[in-house]
Specification:
313 residues, single chain, two-stranded antiparallel sheet, 72% helix
């Protein structure tokens, strides 16, 4: 069995496993990686970019090496290779957890319990929930669903299609490390610089594919493309910009504006300014669009891998 079929069958099994079971409540491999990365940080930390770059290299390099060793150990068995790819995909994607948390906030808002929605929101994103009313919470959820469709699903599938199991685990390591140290807190402004830049590079192809697929599978393809072209470059994140703009245009809503993170106010550009304000019902629409994009990304990755194999032969 060729590497293209191993990826296609294994990644499909992994996505199906995520759909049926979601993330494990205990013993999640990503959580184990986070604990290891935190231990490395305790040893290496200094307010220095060079030390942060070493941290990034050790953590990401270690994850890729482990993935490579595991893939090498089972390479002679197609069944074991498919199984390993399936387990790795299930471990690194988070579409079901993303949908579950978004819907939990949506249900609280539908019932009028804004306080419950505020309590649940930190499970999904890092906004200051007390600074948000019901409309602001709904907007934050839709933006988080859009961005995490790329970060938690599509990006991993892209790198899995490129590099198999090492690509899957490597991308998740990069993304997790960025969430841990890649922000602009006083402790990590310099130390986390390398992790943040690597995340920008690793996330670039998945973000563009997410934006394309959201446009193709959303209810308003022209609106998605129009918003992407007009507004994506104005977003402070090179990867979140195309994704959120495409989702905004596809859903016909207006995203962006004033945000609050950790007591810090940010005034971000409005995406798809001609759209309407986000409503609670748009949370479910965003989740469904995210699901479609994830499965289409799998199909695109499998097709690309098969094309590359054909050219190689």
């Amino acid at each position: 069995m060729g590497a293209d079929r191993v990826f296609a069958y294994g990644a499909a099994a992994g996505l199906l496993g995520d759909l049926l079971f979601g993330d494990p409540r205990r013993g999640h491999p990503v959580a184990a990686f986070g604990r290891a990365a935190a231990a490395v940080e305790r040893v290496l930390w200094q307010d220095d970019r060079g030390r942060g770059a070493v941290h990034t290299a050790v953590c990401v390099g270690g994850a890729v090496a482990l993935g490579g060793l595991a893939a090498r150990a089972v390479r002679r068995s197609p069944t074991a290779s498919v199984a390993l790819t399936g387990v790795a995909t299930w471990a690194v994607v988070g579409g079901t957890s993303l949908a579950r948390e978004a819907r939990a906030v949506g249900r609280a808002l539908e019932s009028g319990d804004v306080e419950a929605a505020r309590e649940r929101l930190p499970h999904l994103c890092g906004r200051d929930p007390q600074a948000l009313d019901a409309d602001g919470i709904a907007r934050a959820v839709v933006e988080s669903v859009a961005e995490n469709t790329s970060d938690a699903v599509v990006g991993a599938l892209v790198w899995g299609a490129v590099a198999g199991v090492p690509g899957l685990v490597g991308f998740r390591a990069v993304n997790t490390l960025d969430a841990m140290v890649g922000h602009k807190s006083p402790r990590h402004r310099r130390y986390g610089w390398a992790s943040a830049r690597l995340d920008d590079v690793a996330g670039w192809p998945g973000a563009r594919l997410t934006a394309v697929l959201a446009a193709l599978s959303g209810p308003d393809p022209r609106g998605a493309v129009r918003a992407w072209r007009a507004d994506a470059a104005r977003h402070p994140s090179p990867n979140a910009g195309p994704v959120e703009a495409s989702f905004a245009g596809a859903l016909g809503v207006r995203l962006g504006g004033t945000l609050s993170y950790g007591g810090r106010i940010e005034h971000r550009p409005v995406l798809n300014s001609g759209g309407r304000p986000v409503a609670v019902a748009d949370i479910e629409r965003a989740v469904r669009l995210s699901r479609r994009v994830g499965w289409l990304a799998l199909a695109a990755g499998a097709a690309a891998r098969r094309v590359l194999k054909g050219r190689a032969t």
